[in-house]
């Protein structure tokens, strides 16, 4: 059974930021929801409450950057780029301010529905010059996200997981690299964020079916090491399948497609994720099943790619984690 | 490097330069020179504590946008001197006042007159809408409403570091239609950012015409005060009033000076163009010629020979 870590960001941010005079913790009225309430209480001199006013917060952070600070902005990801997109562009991205944008509740990890689900943020951020994009997929990556983000000479967009987070990896994020989780030679599976755990759930069933899977996990989405990906694509016989907690336009599916097209790779690619649709409110397992973001969706995608039926059902997949959506550790309530 | 000339002389010089430039180029931001001449002259010639410029008197051409592959990138802030703790900083929030701001830099000896010849020319850093890399600019303010927030962030950071220098934002009244302006004021008040200063050119004009016809904004002095700022309203062409206004006590609050101005001040013929004063492009050779003679007389100069 996979180890679950409770609120890894809370501890990681505090141990990284506390006592560093150039790091400031900014929040827009979602302080406990972004797990920095303890930091606020214990280090009030490093905490700036900016209220429900994200446009000001983005430009204010740009001004702090101009004064030599490295602000970590905490709010739900969706609130950090939709309304204040102009401010993000003009006050942070263009001038390459060292602002660390800690976006919580990526994709369908919230039951909050359309207004709370950042489903196209990676697409938006990939098209912003000077932006770096990191995404966490497990507790170890959440624990190392602050240090990774703060190593960047410029703005950084981070998709951060909160609450109860599984530990899948034992090494921290190394910016610019990718994790090779299995080294098969039939099919290349590329995942990021919470979808990596789903792909790992399908691993043993696919192995039993005789498929040799090469599995990559992306924590660094921009900048991206195209050459490493092309080497992996060259190592598999059939093709590539991507799975992401994001729309398939502009996310890692697009990233892989562009990499293949630029290099003239003729293999097939199947992109799984939100297919040109909004999601609605519901639990994470329900939404991942409903929108085809889970392990079973990946298996069906692989069947499509190989033209074979493996007879794999939900019962054959490693047991899904049971999550209590409304538990204290995973305070979905705003 | 101030007080070599009176602020009245600097304001007149700004208007003469903007007038000459607009005549030669068949249009320009004339009205902004009318309304803001005293404010920018006062800031640069008297009020701001600035060091000597760190960038060449004749601006360098455009040298690329900020990117990891452009390590030598710098902003145009060096025309305001070094960004060291003791000195003030200034943002021109309505970046379309750039022509007036560049004319001010020339009048106070921070940029060579050749700089204005580069205005809005391809490959030049002296851009029509002041960019970060344009002379005297430190941040992009072309989208109205972001200047005061950025100033608040910088001022907060500087106060935290114990720096004596103030952060000033030159604003325009149209910006009060943007919600972000009010977000900025409430944040500056909440955090006691009293080293933040703004002077706003309240000329009652915006791109579509008179503000009252586009979007009525009401009593902005009371609104600013209710949002937590110290706010004082003056005649924006009265330098004595300006000097007194900045002495207003504002402990724990940003100070916002509303400079009520006349968009035709010193160029009375511009009233013919009311209510479309945002950018005056001459409609005919006849209009250009009449304005040339009239404004030249108002400003005490010969009409501009723009025929060549």
TrEMBL record, chain A:
It holds the Pfam family Transket_pyr. Keywords: Thiamine pyrophosphate. Residues 3-167 form the Transketolase-like pyrimidine-binding domain. InterPro entries: PDH/Transketolase (IPR051157), THDP-binding (IPR029061), Transketo_C/PFOR_II (IPR009014), Transketolase-like_Pyr-bd (IPR005475), Transketolase_C (IPR033248). The keyword Cell cycle does not apply. The keyword S-adenosyl-L-methionine does not apply. It comes from the Bacteria. Its cofactor is thiamine diphosphate. Belongs to the transketolase family. PANTHER family: PYRUVATE DEHYDROGENASE E1 COMPONENT (PTHR43825), TRANSKETOLASE-LIKE PYRIMIDINE-BINDING DOMAIN-CONTAINING PROTEIN (PTHR43825:SF1). This is Transketolase. It comes from Paracoccus homiensis.
TrEMBL record, chain B:
PANTHER family: TRANSKETOLASE N-TERMINAL SECTION-RELATED (PTHR47514:SF1). InterPro entries: THDP-binding (IPR029061), Transketolase_N (IPR005474). It comes from the Bacteria. Transmembrane segments: none annotated. SUPFAM superfamilies: Thiamin diphosphate-binding fold (THDP-binding). It holds the Pfam family Transketolase_N. This is Transketolase. Belongs to the transketolase family. Keywords: Thiamine pyrophosphate. It comes from Paracoccus homiensis. Its cofactor is thiamine diphosphate. Residues 83-261 form the Transketolase N-terminal domain.
